[in-house]
Structures are given as C-alpha cells and as structure tokens.
Design brief:
Mean pLDDT: 81
Strand content: 15-25%
Helix content: 10-25%
Radius of gyration: 21 Å
Number of helices: 6
Distance between the termini: 68 Å
Structural class: alpha/beta
Low-confidence stretches: 1-12, 41-54, 257-271, 273-280, 290-310
Shape: elongated
Order of helices and strands: EHEHHEEEEEEEEHEEEEEEHH
Length: 310
C-alpha cells in the first residue's frame, strides 16, 4: 500500500497533516510510541518528558483548515506537548475557522518555539506564557479573517514577530505586548492597519531593549510612536502615510516612569545600558530577568497607562 505522510518513521522530525483522520492517527501513534519507550512501571505522570522520535525538534505542518476543537485536542495530546514548530498553511479561502490560542480550554504547547499561521483564521492574536512559555518566533500572514479584535500577548522568550495583512480593532495592548518581550530582536509588520490613535498623547509606546529591526512598512494609519530601543539598527516607516510624530528616547525616565527613588531609576538605566551594549545570550537573559523583576515589583505606572500621560 502507498505510504501516507504520517506513517511511523523513527528518523522523521516532520509530520504533515492533510485531513482530520491523519491528525487523529498522528496523535494516536505519537502516544503509542511514547508508551513503548516508557520504562516499565512508570505511569504517564511519572515519565520523563521526551520526544517519541528521540529527536530534539518536532515540526508539525497543518495543510488543512483547522478548527478550534482540533486545536484543543492537539494541545491535550503528547504530540501537542512535544511539538516545537507548528505551521498552519491551508489553501486560502475567505471563511476558514478562526483559531483562539488564548482559549482557557487550550492546555498549552510547552515545547513550542515557532508558530506560523498563514491563511488560517486567527482571532484574537493573543498568546500567554502559561500556554506557550518557550515561544520564540511568531509569524501571522494574511489570516482569512483579516480583522482581529485585539493583539495581546505575554511572551518573555519572543525573539521575532511578523504580522502581514492584519487589521486590529483595539490596539490598546499592542505597545505593552511588544514591551513585555525584552528579548524581541525583530518586529516586521506589513500592512498592519488600525494603529491610528489620533492624538500624540495616546502614542504607541514601545520599550524594546533588544530590538535591532523594527518595520511598519505600509502600516498606513500609524500616526504616533514613542520608542526606546537602544540596540535599534533599522526603523522602517516606508509608506506609513499617516505618520505624524516619532519620538526616540534614550532614557527610560523620558517615557514617564515614576520611580520610588532616584537611585532605583539610575540602577535600572545602568542595567539597560549594559544590556544594550552586550551581544550575548547571557545579556538577553539578564534583560528578561530585569524586566520581569520590574514588572512585578518596580514602583512605576503600568505600561498601558503611559500613552495617556505623555
């Protein structure tokens, strides 16, 4: 008989899914392979986590319209637990299902480092570190619904984010979301619409200590932007026809932070300067720790309030 795309292969690190039946088989075979590899006497909860293939990476490519129910089922499986790269790329149609990754029923994808959603619907663009703690790369390209309710995520490990052909209804959490990713090195937005705030006092505030490449190409209605990005090498505002003001600041206190003491803000600025001048993984981790600590305990106003104070 002809070999299917999900037939067991101990050397395979990539699985392609083209139907609901193939998805069910892939989940079942992955769980069976893990049971076979489990030491005798250990139950599911006592087993040491390992990819059933014995590989460090497991890529799952979805080539069919995916439903929310299927996403929930995948997240509850060992396949969902072990997948490191998840790609949704069905044939484009105008009315594909819209996935909701922040749904409470989603158990999570703890090993996932890369997420690519192309053509498949998604609404909202929202991810949490509880469900995707290791996520580093996100690409949303031409979702069929085009318009999303909001963009809101908390991904401290995020390194790159790409949004193409996306309209956002509510952008209040857009700046704070990017600012919650201190390791973010690249943001590329192409035709990201809905970013207009109409007043300079409500400008999008981006605090990006690791970002080197920031692009809003053809994000036509973006009008006001305030940016602290000490490592920035390229800022692309080409064909952003609505832009009225861009403010680049070199001190965090210029963003309107209200520290408890002068020494605290000076220490924070010194730490951020060291981060900006370093190019090692250790420095990036240091940035993450600093910003996690200050989000939890540093006496400053929440980032979401900053645009209203400027």
């Amino acid at each position: 008989p002809q070999r299917t795309s999900i037939e067991p292969d101990p050397q395979r690190t990539s699985i392609e899914i083209k139907s609901a039946e193939e998805l069910q088989r892939a989940i079942a075979e992955h769980e069976a392979a893990e049971r076979d590899a489990m030491p005798e006497g250990l139950g599911q909860r006592g087993a040491v986590r390992t990819l059933s293939s014995g590989q460090e990476e497991l890529r799952l490519a979805i080539r069919m319209p995916f439903t929310q129910e299927q996403l929930v089922a995948l997240s509850a499986s060992t396949l969902g637990r072990d997948v490191t790269s998840l790609e949704f790329r069905p044939e484009y149609e105008d009315y594909l299902p819209a996935l909701q990754f922040n749904d409470d029923d989603i158990r999570g994808f703890p090993s996932l480092t890369s997420l690519d959603v192309s053509a498949q619907g998604i609404n909202p663009i929202a991810f949490t570190k509880r469900q995707m703690p290791a996520l580093k790369h996100v690409c949303i390209d031409q979702p069929c619904n085009r318009t999303v309710a909001f963009v809101d995520f908390d991904l401290p490990e995020l390194v790159s984010l790409s949004l193409d052909f996306v309209t956002v209804d509510d952008t209040d959490a857009f700046g704070p979301s990017l600012s919650r990713s201190p390791k973010l090195e690249s943001f590329r937005g192409y035709k990201v619409w809905g970013l207009s705030v109409r007043r300079r006092s409500r400008a999008h505030v981006l605090v990006l200590p690791s970002c080197e490449d920031l692009s809003f190409y053809r994000s036509d209605d973006l009008d006001h932007l305030i940016l602290w990005a000490p490592r920035l090498k390229e800022l692309n505002l080409r064909a952003v026809y609505g832009i009225e003001s861009v403010r680049l600041v070199d001190r965090l206190d210029q963003l309107g932070f209200f520290p408890g003491t002068g020494s605290t803000i000076e220490a924070l600025e010194a730490d951020c300067a060291r981060i900006a001048n370093a190019a090692t993984d250790a420095a990036a981790e240091r940035a993450a720790r600093i910003f996690r600590a200050h989000r939890l305990g540093f006496p400053m106003l929440p980032a979401v309030l900053l645009p209203r104070l400027l």
